[in-house]
Design brief:
Blueprint: H1 2-16, H2 26-29, E1 40-50, E2 58-69, E3 75-80, E4 87-93, E5 103-112, E6 133-144, E7 147-156, E8 164-176, E9 180-191, H3 193-200, E10 220-233, E11 238-249, H4 251-254, E12 269-280
Antiparallel strand pairs: 1-2, 1-12, 2-3, 3-4, 4-5, 5-6, 6-7, 7-8, 8-9, 9-10, 10-11, 11-12
């Protein structure tokens, strides 16, 4: 079992590069930014995102993302998970275009960065550190014309939060020309009680010297996000993109002392933004 975990954690190193991505980057996976006849794209984005999930402080960072598509229609994609999470996702679509031009399905690997004392909030930095987590799961998606949707599941395999999450996302291409693409996206995530208690709960084991009141977080929908993506193509190879998103924390996540509950130190409103350069090949 330990050997298996070592392999999974080693595999997560590839995902770790994208683990600083926030929800806006997911929008790139929902729109076609690959030039006709191309195989894929890579991008580098400058991202402003919450310091931690539920924080009222944003930090700026840079991170890569992209997708490679084989002639069969199978592809590998690297991006974020959604909401205000600080986690990256590596997914593999196993369905060929000969089988279906609309459906996608395959495994995914997620890497969730730790929450330590490197945060702006002085109370949260005094809590016990939450180590990085590796998660495995599966996704299924459907695309028809300008519409696309995806349902995915991911569960912890690193014994960090021992929980699981369910994601639902969708997008609609508002405009698509030879030079400009604009898309509207929406997503929400549901988390079980183990995940919620790890990232939003406060008890004797993790309170540290924070002075935050004890709080038990139950399972439920933890957030909902709206995003707007714009891409401008200079030519068949280069493009620039911008994404603005707004995430609203929900239910027991919103009521957590780490967010906006009793003596809350964060914010239920989670804005994020990305400016990125894309290279298609």
């Amino acid at each position: 079992m330990n050997d298996m975990k070592s392999v999974l954690l080693s595999s997560a190193a590839a995902v770790a590069l994208s683990a600083t991505l926030a929800s806006p980057v997911m929008a790139y996976e929902d729109v076609s930014v690959v030039a006709e006849g191309g195989h894929g794209f890579v991008g580098l984005g400058v991202i402003s995102k919450p310091d931690y999930e539920g924080s009222d402080d944003n930090k700026t960072t840079a991170a890569p993302f992209g997708r490679y598509r084989w002639a069969s229609g199978r592809y590998a994609s690297l991006g974020g998970t959604g909401g205000s999470e600080t986690a990256g996702r590596l997914g593999f679509n196993l369905i060929t275009t000969d089988s279906s031009e609309n459906w996608t399905f395959g495994p995914l690997l997620q890497y969730r960065l730790k929450r330590d004392d490197d945060v702006e909030n002085r109370q949260v930095e005094k809590m016990k550190e939450v180590d990085a987590a590796t998660e495995l799961g599966v996704f299924v998606g459907f695309k028809a014309g300008p519409w696309s949707t995806e349902l995915s599941f991911a569960g912890d395999v690193s014994d960090e939060h021992d929980g699981y999450l369910v994601y639902l996302k969708g997008s609609y291409e508002l405009m698509k020309t030879g030079k400009v693409l604009v898309a509207l996206g929406a997503n929400t995530s549901w988390a079980d009680s183990n995940y919620m208690d790890t990232y939003f709960g406060v008890d004797s084991s993790n309170v540290g010297n924070s002075g935050l009141p004890f709080y038990n977080a139950d399972s439920g929908f933890k957030d909902a996000t709206l995003s707007l993506t714009g891409v401008y193509f200079f030519n068949r190879t280069w493009a620039v993109a911008g994404v603005a998103s707004y995430t609203r924390m929900l239910n027991d996540a919103e009521d957590s002392p780490l967010v906006e509950g009793n003596q809350g130190v964060g914010d239920k409103n989670q804005p994020a933004a990305v400016v990125a350069v894309l290279y298609s090949f």
